[in-house]
């Protein structure tokens, strides 16, 4: 059985990824931090071929322990994340540090640990769930945008470095997806404000990301609308419309 390591499996995009891989017969190493949410997700997943690991991925000690527990996967999906937001100066240095480690430093640590082993086998895939916010300004979510841009730069550089090997790194840049993230980060108003046509389903994110990863592509923007719109991201008018639709409180 092929083995996948998936972080942040307990809800949203991660849970959709777990379902997709279970339907395709993968063995899953599933990681999240909250035991209750993890158990409930496991029950919904209803799949025998998996191991669950409880780990706070904002902690380097916990991440290092986790890496020792898991053998090299055939597919690594760095998905876990939070929606850190707020105008400049509003986030504590602790919150900034935790979010940065969770979605940037720790992701790099995980990939630097497993990817050389994939290279030795000349086989393996890595998927990083970044965000469309890596490509366009996100006022009052500047830390989130910076983290997601940084991890995008890392992933796409690696993908080129791995050219001519059988190992790939694909960065997925989703727009709005209905998950727990907005409520958890105090952005619930966006779930009412953002028009329906701007939402992409978690299942679509997963199927399009997997397709791109299997082809070895360096990046994928899930959803036709976002792919087309992203071509015009550098235009002032696009930035104004985006800023109006996305306005944080
Ligand atoms: N939803 C969107 O609109 C959107 C758009 C672009 C990109 N993304 C990205 O997609 C990824 C998944 O987010 P989602 O929207 O699916 O959110 P979600 O439903 O809130 O799921 C987040 C997942 O990450 C895990 N997680 C959070 N903090 C963690 C920590 N410190 N240690 C271990 N696990 C942790 C959560 O586990 P626990 O339940 O145990 O905390 C949960 O499984 C994130 O990287 C996010 O930035 C989301």
Q: Can you describe this structure?
A:
With 249 residues, this protein is an alpha/beta fold. Helix content is 49%, strand content 15%. The chain has helices spanning 12-23, 35-45, 60-69, 93-121, 142-161, 181-184, 189-193, 202-214, 224-230, 236-246, and strands at residues 3-7, 27-32, 50-54, 75-78, 124-129, 167-172, 176-177, 199-200, 219-220. It has a 7-stranded parallel sheet with strand order 3-2-1-4-5-6-9, with helices on both faces. A two-stranded parallel ribbon has the order 7-8. Helix 4 links the parallel strand 4 and strand 5. The longest helix has 29 residues, at 93-121. The chain is globular, with a radius of gyration of 17 Å. Bound molecules: NADP nicotinamide-adenine-dinucleotide phosphate. NADP nicotinamide-adenine-dinucleotide phosphate is lined by residues 8-14, 32-34, 37-38, 55-58, 79-82, 102-103, 129, 131, 174, 176-177, 179-181, 184.
């Amino acid at each position: 059985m092929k083995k996948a390591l998936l972080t942040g499996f307990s809800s949203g995009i991660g849970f959709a990824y777990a379902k997709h891989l279970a339907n395709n017969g993968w063995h899953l190493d599933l990681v999240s931090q909250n035991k209750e949410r993890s158990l409930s997700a496991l029950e919904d997943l209803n799949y025998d071929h998996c191991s669950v690991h409880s780990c706070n991925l904002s902690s380097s000690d916990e991440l290092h322990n986790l890496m020792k527990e898991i053998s090299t996967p055939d597919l690594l999906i760095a998905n876990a994340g939070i929606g850190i937001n707020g105008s400049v100066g509003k986030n504590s240095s602790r919150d900034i540090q935790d979010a940065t480690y969770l979605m940037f430093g720790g992701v790099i640590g995980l990939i630097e640990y497993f990817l050389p082993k994939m290279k030795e086998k000349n086989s393996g895939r890595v998927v990083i769930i970044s965000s469309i916010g890596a490509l366009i300004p996100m006022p009052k979510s500047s830390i989130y945008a910076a983290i997601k841009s940084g991890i995008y730069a890392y992933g796409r550089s690696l993908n080129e470095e791995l050219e001519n090997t059988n190992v790939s790194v694909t960065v997925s840049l989703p727009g709005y997806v209905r998950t727990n993230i907005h409520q958890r980060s105090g952005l619930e108003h966006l779930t009412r404000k953002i028009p329906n046509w701007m939402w992409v389903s978690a299942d679509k994110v997963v199927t399009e990301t997997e397709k791109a990863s299997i082809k070895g592509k360096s990046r994928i923007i899930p959803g036709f609308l976002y792919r087309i719109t992203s071509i015009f991201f550098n235009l002032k008018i696009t930035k104004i419309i985006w800023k109006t639709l996305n306005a944080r409180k």
